[in-house]
Every structure is written in structure tokens, then in C-alpha cells.
Write a structure and sequence with these properties.
Shape: globular
Strand content: 5-15%
CATH architecture: 3-Layer(aba) Sandwich
Number of helices: 10
CATH class: Alpha Beta
Number of strands: 6
Distance between the termini: 56 Å
Number of domains: 1
Radius of gyration: 18 Å
């Protein structure tokens, strides 16, 4: 099956090992869990699905696994690509349809925020219907540090992206991020080595993302980190480690 052998050999140290380390370090999977791996069709979630599939037989604790994909209103071509990639990787996807793109695209202000919020809600709801108590998303190491900087630079708050999060509006549900320690460059290297082509966003508002014509705050932060890395190759690790070394006593008391 595509992708399996290289994850056991060539990409074991860069992908498999940090994936397994994150599960153990943050207690992401517990005995008796039923986990819905949410597959968007992009490289990150597809890799996560494959890693979770390979992990279940060797897991030290028993757990159930489902592979859930939401069609937010893909074009027929994009829907076929998601299905083809899942088949090539041997991922038994359960796809359900929604009108997320249609609704979000009518929103003039912050359509991407609305889209993400609606997607998350649909995934939680569908996972619950399947009897799952956890959903797994494909956010990786670089998503973590970029989101942290975006919150500080553009949102005026210190807020991180945790490896596990109890759902506020869906009782008994937990969100987990098993790729928390996996770097995006290594995911891209795996994708290219396997000659796989995945979706970007597939939304008409971000169709330019793949060729760089679409800009965003996240793209700005990526460029900032890239420049900082030229001066200090360890800057990404420093940002990440700072999330685990918070000195709460050094912060001012009271609001602005």
C-alpha cells in the first residue's frame, strides 16, 4: 500500500517516531477510546490517517478507529481526488456531505473563520453519531508555532494550540492532535517521495494558495519565521518549547 513502507523505513525517524512520541507525551489515546480521524483531503490529515492506521495494531492500549471525511461542497474533481488518494493509501473513508462552502462564501466578513467553525461542528456531530469520543486533526508542529505567533501579533493575546482539548459544546468529546511534534517540511518530503498530490483548501476564496497568489496572515507569519530561522536555525524549537515553559508569575495582573 502506498506510503506504508517509507513510514517504516526512510521516514521513521522524522514522521513515525515523533507521532508516537506525541501520543505518549500528551496522553492522546487511552484504552477504550473510539477515535474519528478527520480527513480533509490535504497532506497533513491524509498522513495522520495513515499513521493512525499503522499505529492501532501496535498500540499498547486497545482503541477503535474510524476515518471521517466531510465534503463541504467540493467540486466533482476535488471529491474524486480525495477518494482516489484514500484508496491509494488504503484508508477506508466515510464521507458525508454538508453545505459549509455555500454558507461560508455568503459571509462577507471572516468567511474562513465561519468555515472552520462550521467544519469543526459538523465533524464533532458526525463523530458522536458514530459512537466516537475523540476526533483527531492533522495540525502539526509548524501549525502550533504559527498559530501562537498569529494570536500574539494579530489577535493581541497569548494563546496556544494544545495537543488535546475538551470540547465545550459536545459533551464527552475530546480533540487530539497526534502530529503535534511532526514538522511540515518532513510531511512535504514524504508526500513528494510518494508522488502524492493532495488538496490545498479547495475553497474558491483560497484557490490561489497553491501558486502563492493568495496571501494571508499565516503566510506572513511563515515568512517571518523563515527570516528568523536564517539568523537562528533553532528559533522554531525555541518558540515551541516556550509553550511548555510558561512563567505565569511574570505576567501583569488586571486587564488593559
Amino acid at each position: 500500500m502506498a506510503g506504508e513502507e517509507s513510514l517504516r523505513t526512510r521516514f521513521r525517524a522524522s514522521l513515525w517516531d515523533p507521532f508516537v512520541r506525541a501520543i505518549g507525551r500528551y496522553g492522546l489515546i487511552e484504552a477504550g477510546d473510539s477515535v474519528a480521524v478527520c480527513v480533509s483531503g490535504g497532506k497533513d490529515s491524509m498522513l495522520l490517517a495513515k499513521l493512525m492506521q499503522l499505529y492501532r495494531p501496535v498500540s499498547p492500549v486497545p482503541f477503535e478507529l474510524r476515518f471521517l471525511s466531510m465534503d463541504p461542497g467540493y467540486s466533482p474533481a476535488n471529491r474524486r481526488q480525495v477518494e482516489a488518494n484514500a484508496a491509494r493509501l488504503g484508508i477506508p473513508l466515510q464521507i458525508f456531505g454538508t453545505d459549509v462552502f455555500e454558507v461560508a462564501n455568503r459571509q462577507m466578513k471572516n468567511p474562513c473563520f465561519l468555515c472552520a467553525k462550521m467544519r469543526r461542528g459538523h465533524l464533532y456531530s458526525e463523530a458522536q453519531k458514530l459512537g466516537c469520543n475523540k476526533i483527531a486533526l492533522g495540525h502539526h508542529f509548524n501549525d502550533v508555532i504559527e498559530t501562537t505567533l498569529m494570536a500574539m501579533l494579530y489577535g493581541a493575546q497569548l494563546q496556544a494550540m494544545p495537543p488535546r482539548l475538551t470540547a465545550a459544546n459536545f459533551e464527552g468529546m475530546t480533540l487530539i492532535r497526534p502530529l503535534y511534534l511532526v514538522r511540515e517540511d518532513d510531511i512535504i518530503a514524504w508526500r513528494d517521495a510518494e508522488a502524492l498530490t493532495f488538496l490545498q483548501c479547495a475553497c474558491r476564496l483560497t484557490e490561489g494558495t497553491a501558486d502563492g497568489s493568495h496571501d494571508s496572515k499565516r503566510a506572513e507569519v511563515k515568512r517571518l519565521i523563515r527570516r528568523l530561522r536564517e539568523e537562528d536555525p533553532e528559533v522554531e524549537r525555541h518558540i515551541f518549547d516556550s509553550l511548555h515553559r510558561v512563567d505565569a508569575g511574570s505576567f501583569p495582573q488586571g486587564g488593559t
